[in-house]
UniProtKB/TrEMBL annotation:
Protein name per Swiss-Prot or TrEMBL: Response regulator transcription factor
Organism: Pseudomonas sediminis
Upper classification of the organism: Bacteria, Pseudomonadati, Pseudomonadota, Gammaproteobacteria, Pseudomonadales
Keyword Amino-acid biosynthesis listed: no
Record keyword DNA-binding present: yes
Key words, A-Z: DNA-binding, Phosphoprotein, Transcription, Transcription regulation
Length: 216
């Protein structure tokens, strides 16, 4: 029996997933969460075999949440369920500690298969992203722009863009203020940002692009 926690901020999505997993006698939903704080609370209180995690939730989410969970529960399989068919995002969450990445466009049987595979200890990558990831690995590494950022620098950029201070970022990622400041200096230089306003403007552009792609 696979004891599963579902973390997704949309109630309809959680209810649909629960109905789906009822079709598999080997999967049991033991908890659910609508944000990062609730997810951490559920993990503290429930003996879970796998976490099914939405990449975008209110508050602490995404790579920062995955990093924290992986740090606290290094053996816990994390299957990211995302609306974004983005190979770079998939790579980043896997580097942050996720075990698998699947998009919400996949059919139900593919999701169930991914849950079983990840719980068994194997990695899983959405079939639609495999070729894109393989091709992107062949590209030369850029020394500037978003492709030049390390996983940690990208995490910090997104948190700063969300309005978190250096101190708050350090607390969320469980690193020192000095380390955050050093990463901030490096990412600002790589991205060509001269101020926090540039950083926030760039992050807002990313979110708008993702929303547009989700509607198409």
């Amino acid at each position: 029996m696979i004891d599963l926690i579902i973390a997704d901020d949309h109630t309809i999505m959680r209810e649909g997933l629960k109905r789906l997993f009822e079709l598999d006698k080997d999967i049991r939903i033991i908890g659910e969460a609508a944000n990062g704080t609730q997810t951490l609370e559920q993990l503290r209180n429930l003996p879970v075999d796998l976490l099914l995690l939405d990449i975008s939730m209110p508050g602490l989410s995404g790579e920062a949440l995955i990093s924290r969970i992986h740090h606290q529960y290094p053996e816990l399989p994390i299957l990211v369920l995302s609306m974004h068919c983005d190979p770079q995002l998939a790579i980043r969450v896997l580097r942050a500690g996720a075990t698998g990445y699947i998009t919400k466009s996949q059919p139900p049987e593919t999701l169930i298969s991914a849950v079983h595979k990840v719980e068994s200890g194997a990695r899983y990558i959405d079939p639609e992203l495999l070729e894109q990831i393989a091709l992107s690995s062949l590209k030369p590494v850029s020394r500037c722009g978003p492709d030049s950022l390390t996983n940690r620098e990208f995490q910090i950029m997104r948190l700063l863009a969300d309005g978190f201070s250096v101190n708050e970022v350090a607390q969320q990622l469980m690193i020192s203020n000095k380390t955050v400041s050093t990463h901030k200096i490096n990412l600002m230089e790589k991205m060509g940002f001269s101020s926090n306003a540039d950083l926030i403007k760039y992050a807002a552009g990313l979110e708008n692009a993702k929303k547009s792609s989700g509607k198409s």
